[in-house]
Design brief:
Length: 280
Amino acid sequence: MEVSMRKHVLAISVFQWVLTFLLMGTFFTILLLYLLFTSFWIIPVVYFTWLFNDWDTPVRGGRRSEWVRRWTVWKYFRDYFPIKLVQTAPLSPDRNYVLGCHPHGIFSASSFCNFATEATVFSEIYPGVRSWLAVLAGLFKFPVYRDYIMSAGVTPVSKDSLKYLLTCCGTGNAVFIVVGGATESLQSSPGEHTVTLSNRKGFVRLALENGADLVPVYAFGENDIYEQVRFAPDSWGWKLQLLCKKHVGFAPCLFKGTGVFGGSSWGLNPFPRPLTSVGK
């Protein structure tokens, strides 16, 4: 009974993360706009006024919170798969680093757990080094959600944002970039390992221009936690994915996972398969 209860807790910890990624930004956008036309209009007015003045914070290091990064829920998240971070070489706190991560997968679960939380004790493995996970800049346009992900040390994957971390925040900064982006997410399927680097070498130039060391990171198992439905070329789904990738930078994927309590082949939860991130 105790083992079964723990299994459910682990599954729920992952499910809340998936729902947060998929719905939190849209939910708070709609909620704040709705409140504008109610007797609670002062709440969105105050927030949007503050947001206007705070708009550039994500590209200036954000608002990192060690308390959020150390939430117990992230340990449950880690244990669901489980997720491991393997050190193959030390990182000196006297240097800055740009780390190119592969593969992207559907949600980059291992990168989030290892570099946006302390579930795998990154700060103990690499003392004096701060990890920053760079993600799609468009996510920081969603109210409330932007503040939530900033607290985890997540930053926009934009030139201004990354350059600020490497030049204005001292040394000991490790910026993790999942270089394949939306294009690589469309090629995510169990057993496949396709690296997408064409027209995506800006992170190399960024490291060279700012004197940062370039480090490759591979997440074993990332492509195995979801089964993606592939659309035939020229189908409506294929055209929609290309359109979103071109104009939004995000490609919607149709994927199959497992149910929160198992038993479903179309659930939102990833399959509990081991994930191991190794950097060299």
